[in-house]
Each structure stands twice: as C-alpha cells, then as structure tokens.
Amino acid sequence: MTEQPTTISESVIGKASTPSSTTSPPTRRSTVHRGFPTTKPDRSDQPIRIEGLAPLSLKSSRPAASKAKFTHQLQQQERPNVHKSNKASSSTPPTSTAASTKPASEKFPKKLQVFPFVPGATTNELTKAHKFFFSPAEFVKSATDFSMIPENTMIPEVAFVGRSNIGKSSLINGLVNRNGLVKTSSKPGHTRMMNFFKLGDKLSLVDMPGYGWRSRDEWGGMIISYLQNRKNLRRIYILVDPSHGLKESDTQIMKLLDSSGLSYQVVLTKMDRLSKTKYSTAKAEIEAELVKGAICCFPLVLGVSSKTKDGLDELRAAIVKAGQLSL
C-alpha cells in the first residue's frame, strides 16, 4: 500500500493542536515609531522617589548623624505653621514686661534737648546783606499811641525789643552804619516811644521802648496790640546781655510771643565785654534755657558788638532772610 502525502493545512492544524511541553507567558510588545517606544516601560520594580525625600534604599545607607539631621528637617516640613506662629509670638513683646509700663513721656520726649542745627550765612549772603544795609536809611515816625503807628504796608518789618539800656538804639545805628540815626542815651528808659525807620524802601526797622526798670508803663496795650496785629511784622529780635543772662522780664515777653505765634530770635549784645570762654559759656546756658520752654524762637542765637562791629553782618543776613528780601 502506498503512503499518501499530507497537505499543508493538516500539518499546520496538527501542530497547533499539539500541546507544548513548556509554556512561556506572553511578553509585552511595544510598537516602534521612529525609534522610540510608544508605551512607557514598566518600572514597578524601582523605588518611588518623592520630592524632598530620599528613597528607602538610600535611607538605610545614611550615617547616624545625617539621619538625625534629615529627621529634623522632615519634622520642620511637617509643621510649618507651628514654626511661623512661634516667630510671630516672639516678635510681639509681652504686655507684662517692665518696658511696656514706662510712661509715654520717657519713650517719646516732647521737649527738645538742643536746638536743631541751622547753617550760618554763606559768604555771598553776608556780602549782599552788608551792601544792602549801607543803603540810605531815614527816620519815618514816632508813635506814642497805637493809632499813630504808620499804616501797614507791604514792606517787611522787623522790631528790636529788650530790657532798658540793653543797646537797641546803638545796634540799629551800627546795622545801618549811621551813628546819629537813632538817638542814644546812657540812662535806662530813654526810649519811650516806638520809632520807625525805613531802609531803602525795602525794609522797615522798629526801635521799641525798653521793658524793665522805669519803662513798665510804656509796655502797655499799645505795644501788645502792635505785636499781635502788625501784619507785615516778620520777626522780633530780643536783645539779651550775656553778662546777666535771661531775666524774668525776658521770659515773660517770650511767653507772650509764643502764645501769639510770633517768630522771634535772641541776639546777645555787648559780647566784647566778655572773654571768648565766658561768652561761650553764657551762650550755652542761655540756649539751654531757651530749649526748655521756647516755642516760636528761631533756633539760632546770634552775638553782636556795636563797639567792635563783630557779628553785625551775620545779623544783617539773618534780617534779610527773615524779611524774605530778594537782593
């Protein structure tokens, strides 16, 4: 009997139906597109890395010191609110401390300790002021009553006040470089009227009666009304003798000006009678007294001498600046 050949279909079917002795699990295939796999590789066997934390495999290999440091950092990350609240609580001082019980006057003193720094006049300002005060000066009028005071004009005005025999008339004569413009006398209380002078149609100077011995009657309602109602009054210069310091009458006139809101400046006269050391000491003592209670006092004490002409240019420059004159 001849053997019949098997067909291709039968052989394939027979091979497929024959069970395999070793069966392998199906492998995961990935289609390749331009050389890169389209599916992510399986990394389930790798440790998971969290931002800021090391994997478990690395933790076990850390030394003891680094482990303790890492644990401290982890604890700080787990409770950030507690850390911030501790900072906030530490920044606010407790209310039961002794510092909080101090009175407000000790924390924030309201009174000045020293005068603030005021720069002096420049050389150019001194030169212009010196030239201006050599302009023609003339006498305008004397007033014994408030109704006799010259009409208020737009010309700036400054007044000189002080105790009797303090040297007001001599100072004005020295400022304008004319010895006979203002009458002077060695007797206290010689000036009993308000004397008005004009300098170059730009500035008005007023020589006030002295207050103190034999001149209290002159310091009545007329002068107070003038000081409080004169609109073109720019500054009042209070003359003080540094040999005697501030007197009670000086303090009273300063309180009157402070209550009226009038600007004034202290000028020390007859500085040539003291040595430089004694003059500096007297000036420092007067400044210390002014700082205690002065309100409207301009924070620059000047010193002049009508005899030696020292300090006159500095006073001239101060008057020009107070009157806001354009030279």
From TrEMBL:
Residues 1-105 are annotated as: Disordered. PANTHER family: GTP-BINDING PROTEIN 8 (PTHR46498:SF1). Residues 1-10 have a biased composition (Polar residues). Belongs to the TRAFAC class TrmE-Era-EngA-EngB-Septin-like GTPase superfamily. EngB GTPase family. Residues 17-29, 87-103 have a biased composition (Low complexity). PROSITE patterns: G_ENGB (PS51706). The keyword Metal-binding applies. This is GTP-binding protein 8. NCBIfam families: GTPase_YsxC. Residues 154-325 form the EngB-type G domain. Keywords: GTP-binding, Magnesium, Metal-binding, Nucleotide-binding. SUPFAM superfamilies: P-loop containing nucleoside triphosphate hydrolases (SSF52540). The lineage of its organism: Eukaryota, Fungi, Fungi incertae sedis, Mucoromycota, Mortierellomycotina. InterPro entries: EngB_GTPase (IPR052279), G_ENGB_dom (IPR030393), GTP-bd (IPR006073), GTP-bd_ribosome_bio_YsxC (IPR019987), P-loop_NTPase (IPR027417). Pfam families: MMR_HSR1 (PF01926). Its cofactor is Mg(2+). HAMAP family: GTPase_EngB. The keyword Nucleotide-binding applies.
